[in-house]
Amino acid sequence: MKAFGGSVLFLDRSDINTDEIIPAKYLTEITKEDLQPYILEDLKLPGFDPKGEKTKAARVVVSRANFGCGSSREHAPWVFEVNGITAVIAESFARIFRQNMFNCGMAAIELPKEKIDALFAYAGTAETAISLDVETQTLTVRGAGKEETISFDISPFDKALVLAGGWVDYADQKY
Amino acid sequence: MGKTTAEKIFASHLVDEPFTGTKVLRLDVVMCHEITTPIAIADLVARGKDRVFDATKIKAVIDHVTPSKDSKTATQAKMLREWARRHDIKDFFDVGANGVCHALFPEKGFIRPGYTVIMGDSHTCTHGAFGAFAAGVGTTDLEVGILKGVCAFREPKTIRVNLNGTLPKGVYAKDAILYVIGQLGVNGATDRVLEFRGPVVDAMTMESRMTLSNMAIEAGGTSGICMPDMVTVEYLWPFIQNEYSSKEAALAAFSQWRSDDDAQYERVLDFDLSNLEPIVTFGYKPDQVKPATELAGTAVDQVYLGSCTNGRLEDLRVAAEILKGRKIAPTVRGILSPATPKIYQDAMAEGIIDIFMEAGFCVTNPTCGACLGMSNGVLAEGEVCASTTNRNFMGRMGKGGMVHLMSPATSAATAIEGKIADPRKYL
Questions:
Q1: CA distance B29 to B134
Q2: Do B282-426 and B157-272 have the same topology in CATH?
Q3: How far is Cα B54 from Cα B27, in angstroms, rounded to an integer?
Q4: Distance between CA atoms of A96 and B328, rounded to whole angstroms?
């Protein structure tokens, strides 16, 4: 059973693209770890500081529609991974980003707009945390004395990749 | 019930369906460049799996930063170069022979109708212009592709986009696709194949169809597919003439990949492009588009002509027609990057390079450099570029820079005026 969770970074905008998550100039790095300082460096969002404490503490990202659009660069999920973020929850994802997350054994969870709105209701409160259980397909959000559990859909293949820890070993054993 | 091109390709390449809705496909071509492949190589080596599934089906090029600009990019190039040698990958293109992947690989004849193609590059959808299923993937999918020759996809639904009428003078494939993206929105085709049909596409060259398919990803599309026809056969003929007794025989073979007349589509969109005007983006998303006439007068600092969208010979010809005998505005830097060495040579032979240089353009070697702000034309904070590329995200061509996407003709007119300009007055 693979569980993800912790402090939440809310990014309240649609169409956050891979250039904003990790600018192209850092694609010259050849290890994932070297990407670590540059997370979300070019994302301009009111109140958001890519170098701030909230970013450092984040374990889960919650955002809006079409998250991760643009480049195929897997550096975008990697820069999350090396900063301790292993799950992104959004209304929808761009296909390549979504697949890259699952291929790395991370979670890209889609929720309908009203459920995302419900998560954003926690955004103002300090110490919002989400725990996410891929096996049971549920997530629990806690903050400001409240707690609620939300179920989510995930394709059986993507679930298998998360549980297997990624696509390379899965594919090499099977094909 | 009939099938779409994508459904036919999925059915013919199916290796496994591990779960309902997930199809593992056999790959005909795996393409590699030096930005997303070296990490895949390093990971394969670390896992003790430094193998390739079929060296003849792997094509590799150094194109994003070339020649290398610093020690890090030199290391990336070296890793790709040594890997290609180690595995005897013959179709490897290094400095002197290298060009922008999605222009170079079709030019070498690596794509056929009905093929499955992946690359660690989002604009791999370009190759759908040949009636192939071609999709951009991340490094892990690329790694599995290199190792096992397979890739997993959700079977995509197809949106048929009928481009009706005829394109007016001064309006090109780039304007058509910018218009379509404006209509669909940046995620209007996520997990979908865009099938480009209709008389406008039928009348297009392969170069123009590649421009169209190249930007399918900007609407979120997995691939942008055009139907194989005699235009496809003519383009590929130098590479297939030993395989078929005649062009008609090749056409008959390729036609099996055309969508059936009774194929089912998720949506069918009809656009009449007979009155389309030159289109330019105005914001930071490729669906933010306006007619060039509405943005006319917007000052730019740089004009960039090149990339996998519009660095091909017909693009250079159109721009040269406008630039001939004229000078670019003194406030503008003009940069031309012919997309491949062949395009560069052909453009020289036709006098096109002279026209660009006499107009005041800087001509670089074939590379992706400026398009994604990696080398050869990065913008400074606050600068604006009129560009024939495919992506206008904030800071795409350099931190704090702004990009207006447009056709080669519009970029040439813009270079002359130093401000966004309607190309039709120069034609």
A1: 9
A2: no
A3: 10
A4: 39
Chain A residues with beta carbon closer than 8 angstroms to that of B49? 168, 172
Select from B217, B208, B7, B9 the least CA-distant residue to B117: B9
Say yes or no: B283 contacts chain A, CB-CB below 8 A: no
Nearest CA in chain A to B124: A72
Q: Six-digit token pair at A53? A: 């404490």
Contact at 8 Å (CB) between B223 and B125? yes
Condensed to tens digits (0 to 9), the pLDDT of residues B104-157 reads: 999 999 999 999 999 999 999 999 999 999 999 999 999 999 999 999 999 889
What are the C-alpha distances in Å from B262 to residues B2, B5, B194, B251?
5, 12, 17, 21
Tracing tokens 């096996």 back to the chain, one arrives at A135
Q: Which helix (H) or strand (E) holds B133?
A: strand B133-136
Below-70 pLDDT ranges, chain B: none
For residue A133, the one-letter residue type is D
B32 is in an annotated binding site: no
**Contact call for residues B82 and B101 (beta carbons, < 8 A):** no
8 A C-beta contact, residue A158 and residue A100: no
Tell the CATH topology of B282-426. Aconitase; domain 3 (3.30.499)
Domain residue ranges of chain A, discontinuous segments joined by +: 4-174
* pLDDT number for residue B1: 86
Cβ B312 vs Cβ B343: under 8 Å:
yes
Q: Which fold has domain B157-272?
A: Aconitase; Domain 2 (3.40.1060)
Is B141–A99 a contact, with Cβ atoms under 8 angstroms apart? Answer: yes
8 A C-beta contact, residue B100 and residue B214: no
Identify the closest residue of chain B to A102 by CA–CA distance.
B140
What predicted TM-score, i.e. pTM, was given to this entire model? 0.97
Chain A contact for B385 (CB, 8 A cutoff): no
pLDDT at A2 over 80: no
Is it true that domain A4-174 has CATH number 3.40.50.300? no
- Residue spans of the domains in chain B: they are 5-154, 157-272, 282-426
Report the largest interatomic distance among the alpha carbons of chain B, rounded to a whole angstrom.
62
A164 touches chain B (CB under 8 A): no
Strand partners, B134: B117
CA of A126 to nearest chain B CA: how many angstroms apart?
30
Whether ipTM exceeds 0.85: yes
Q: Are B259 and B227 a contacting pair, CB within 8 Å? A: yes
B140 vs A: CB within 8 A: yes
The CATH class that applies to domain B5-154 reads alpha beta
The answer for residues whose C-beta is within 8 angstroms of residue B423's C-beta and 6 or more apart is: B170, B278, B292, B322, B407, B409, B410, B412, B413
CA distance B336 to B339: 9
